[in-house]
Amino acid sequence: MTTTAGERDVLEGVGGVHVTYRRWLPDGEVRATVQVVHGASEHSGRYDRLAAALTGRGLAVHALDLRGHGRTAEGTGTGRFGAPGVEGVLADVRALHRVAAEQHPGLPRLLLGHSMGSIIALAAAEADGGDLAGLVLSGPLGADPGLAGTVTQLESAVAAGLGEQPLDLGTFNESFEPARTRYDWLSRDDAEVDAYLADPLAGDEMPLTYDYAAGVFAMNVRATTAEGVAELPDGLPVLLLSGQRDPVGGADAAHVTTLAGLLRDRGLPVEQHVYPDARHEVFNETNRDEVVADLLAWIDARLAG
Questions:
Q1: Domain count of the chain?
Q2: Burial status of residue 64 (CB atoms within 10 A of its CB: 0-12, 13-18, 19 or more)
Q3: Do 202 and 46 form a contact (C-beta atoms < 8 A)?
Q4: Contact residues for 34 (Cβ-Cβ < 8 A; gap 6+)
Q5: Is 22 a member of any domain?
Q6: What counts of helices (H) and strands (E) characterise the chain?
Q7: How far apart are the C-alpha atoms of 160 and 210, rounded to whole Å?
Q8: What is the per-residue pLDDT across 178-226, written as a single tens digit (0 to 9) for each?
Q9: What CATH number is attached to the domain comprising 176?
Q10: If both were cysteines, with which of 51, 210, 260, 296 could 24 make a disulfide (CB 3.0 to 4.6 Å apart)?
């Protein structure tokens, strides 16, 4: 089964923000829709290869350029939410779901978030996930007990007038020093790291602001509490995908494993994969074929059920 290229379109989000999104369609019957929510300092176009694998299984794929990112940043400004703030990203996820549902009525819906996108996807599922057939979190932060303190520091910086200043996430590379680049923490595949560095809509060219980071990290703190996961729909299947050496999810994915425990305590069916020696972007890792195979097998099982 072949696929169309990632066609770009625009929807009007709350606050008058024009949100760019991409759509990849299978050449044939559509079995379900998958919305992909990308991570910080990247954009939807980086998911072409993953979308090709998904459309190859008959899945229609939609992905936003989040506020402050990609083409959407042309309206909001780089690393900025625009009106009405952090809640706008959740409204955009809902809006794109409506687009997919109108184009493919009555089909199962899956939501996949990577990194910062996993925060947004989890929060979106808690707020409005009643029709989800499954939730996938790739490279998630998990339930990090130290994150609340980080949010307090970020909010203090915002109150001091630094809200619009770019935030450096370079500390993620510390465990890989001496490193070839500032982004060795993303993948063991040098070609993938170099492609990220060369992308004008990624990395240092698309930094988060202090205000943006404060908003999304506070969202993660709320979403990964027992009270937060209690808002998830009963029986929602969840797939967690992490690299063992991903600094975002804690040592050996410890914070992700804590989140898995919270979700299981909620009574949800959870499948967790921690890939040995893999780093943050598991879909761009040297073992990406294994990761994608696990994802497709999990989706097939959900749709068969």
A1: 1
A2: buried
A3: yes
A4: 54, 59, 60, 61, 62, 110, 111, 112, 299
A5: yes
A6: 10, 8
A7: 11
A8: 999 999 999 999 999 999 999 999 999 899 999 999 999 999 999 999 9
A9: 3.40.50.1820
A10: 51
Helix (H, G, I), strand (E, B) or coil at 172: helix
The amino acid present at 82, given as its one-letter code, is G
> How much is the pTM?
0.97
Residues whose CB falls within 8 Å of the CB of residue 285, separated by 6 or more in sequence, listed in order: 187, 188, 189, 192, 243, 275, 278, 279, 291
Question: What is the per-residue pLDDT across 253-301, written as a single tens digit (0 to 9) for each?
Answer: 999 999 999 999 999 999 999 999 999 999 999 999 999 999 999 999 9
* Angle, CA of 284, 54 and 4, to the nearest 5°: 105
The contacts of residue 265 (CB under 8 Å, 6+ apart) are 226
* 239-255 tens-digit pLDDT: 999 999 999 999 999 99
What's the pLDDT tens digit per position in 132-182? 999 999 999 999 999 999 999 999 999 999 999 999 877 899 999 999 999
| Burial class of residue 277 in the structure, from the number of CB atoms within 10 Å of its CB (0-12 exposed, 13-18 middle, 19+ buried) | exposed
Under a CB-based contact definition with an 8 Å cutoff, are residues 96 and 11 in contact? yes
Tokens of 196: 């990220």
Within a domain: 2: no
Other Cβ atoms within 10 Å of 30 Cβ, number:
15
Q: What is the pLDDT of residues 52-88, one digit of tens each?
A: 999 999 999 999 999 999 999 999 999 999 989 999 9
Evaluate whether residue 1 is within a structural domain: no
CA distance 273 to 171: 25
Beta bridge partners of 9: 21
Per the listing, tokens 């990203």 go with 89
Q: In this predicted structure, what is the pLDDT of residue 305?
A: 66
Within a domain: 45 = yes
Confidence tier at 5 by pLDDT (50, 70, 90): low
